[in-house]
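BUG: 3D viewer hangs when loading the predicted structure for this chain

Environment: internal workstation, default settings.
Expected: structure renders.
Actual: progress bar stalls at 90%.

Input used:
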Amino acid sequence: FIAISSEVRGRIARYYGRDSVIIFPPVATGRFVPSPQAGNYFLCLGRLIPYKRVDLAVQACTALNLPLIVGGDGRDRARLERMAGPTVKFVGRVPEADLPDLMARCRAFIFPGLEDFGIAPVQALAAGRPVIAFAGGGALDTVVENQTGHLFHEQTADSLADVLKQFDSTRFDPASIRAFALKFDRK
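Structure tokens produced before the viewer hung:
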């Protein structure tokens, strides 16, 4: 058996009673590089569907009056736009050519969903940016507390907001974050 993350490896052991080897999904990290200057916004992107829990990022950033760019589209967009405050900007589907710069300039990438792995957080890490993620699934393999980002332990807007209140992007070294991400590269 082959698993794509520690989470999936645990599931294989639990349900099949078998061990497995982890082979992480290959991520094209080469096109993501750190920017000499970061912007002031947080970034959350992907398909805007309920299980991705983008609502947590929208609610937390609205409550704290923090700038958030939400990229992507999907059936949950109208609901998310209704709950968003003035500091939340929806940009729709982000063209592949624009993605590296958008990632490289964010204060941090917010990953509030529960995924088996998660390619986008690794792309953000390759761009030298820390990730703030829900402490579950594949994020446990890619987000190392105080090294590559922060984890929030309850999948609620309040739990995410507690991390955002304390977040300081200057405590992270973009070169170290990028070096960590390279272990997930296609090579």
